[in-house]
Design goal:
Strand order of the largest sheet: 1-2-4-5-6-7-8-9
Strand content: 15-25%
Mean pLDDT: 86
Helix content: 40-55%
Low-confidence stretches: 286-291
Shape: elongated
Largest sheet: 8 strands, mixed, barrel
Structural class: alpha/beta
Oligomer: single chain
Number of strands: 9
């Protein structure tokens, strides 16, 4: 205080500004550390990825004969986080191939540990368009592709402008040669240049099946089914939310698979196997020899 009140006031002012700046920086540091993105990246390799399995109903057999593997993430508090929150982070940090490998590995471990013996299952996976490279994908899916495997694997590719049809076709042929089937996902909502690819199947964009009756999109659903049927490819209709829509699809006789909340929500492995046991084919058993 012998310096004078003015000097003390300046010192206090500088100290206050410095304290405020330090607190602000500390707050930002804490926010960065505990932000969703930071938490996700820190926990990604620590068993935080969870696979859910949405049944695929085979309309020709009226049985569940497949599923789509859908990735989820378990936050630190146990909350299960949907993919729309973390997929942009994966793409932003160039983790798409690594993430796909993790999902495939977890799904293989789940299914081989819990699937009933003697049941054959089609298993669909989504892949990032930028990862359409058979040299990278075939090793990732290798465990599913052995001669003794009870799984038929389908990779679903979203229509996009990121890949040219010429490049896509070369990689698709390499995937098919390795034993993988290839579907175009969200068909009808993407780029028409992808429509001429040589593929195994098509999954119609959910907006067709979810459209109200007598709407334009609902009318277009019938035309889309006719188009895919004429091409000779397998057809999956997703977004089936009601029994009326499901029965209408069955009545066409032209839809191979249906998928949606009207059939089943995505399920964790335990509930999925229970659902499959109730709604899927009976396990194959060897006939008893008669003496």
């Amino acid at each position: 205080f012998s310096l004078g009140w003015a000097t003390v006031a300046v010192i206090l002012l500088v100290a206050s500004v410095l304290a405020a700046w330090t607190a602000q920086q500390l707050q930002r540091l804490i926010e960065r550390y505990w932000s969703f993105e930071a938490r996700f990246l820190r926990q990604l390799d620590k068993g935080s990825v969870v696979c859910a399995y949405q049944p695929l109903l085979n309309l020709k057999k009226d049985l569940v004969t497949g599923c789509e593997v859908l990735a989820r993430w378990r936050d630190l508090d146990g909350t299960i986080v949907p993919p729309d929150r973390f997929l942009p982070i994966i793409e932003k940090h160039g983790l798409t191939e690594r993430f796909t490998a993790m999902v495939v590995a977890y799904a293989y471990a789940d299914l081989t540990a819990h699937m009933p013996k003697g049941v054959r299952l089609q298993v669909n996976f989504n892949i990032f368009p930028q990862d359409l490279d058979a040299g990278k994908l075939v090793p990732i899916f290798a465990p599913f592709l052995t001669d003794a495997s009870p799984f038929d694997v389908v990779v679903e590719i979203v229509e996009t402008a990121e890949i040219s049809p010429e490049t896509a076709q070369v990689e698709i042929e390499r995937l098919r040669a390795a034993g993988l089937k290839v579907y175009i996902d969200d068909f009808g909502a993407g780029y028409s240049s992808m429509h001429n690819l040589s593929i195994d199947g098509v999954k119609l964009d959910r907006s067709f099946a979810m459209a109200p009756d007598h709407s334009v999109m609902s009318t277009m659903l019938a035309h889309a089914i006719d188009l895919v049927q004429a091409s000779g490819r397998s057809l999956v209709v997703e977004g089936v939310e009601t029994m009326d829509r499901l029965n209408a699809l069955k009545a066409t006789g032209m839809v191979d698979f249906a998928q949606g909340y009207g059939i089943s929500r995505p399920l964790l492995i335990g509930p999925f196997v229970a659902y499959l046991t109730e709604h899927g084919p009976r396990p194959l058993t060897r006939p008893r020899l008669v003496a």
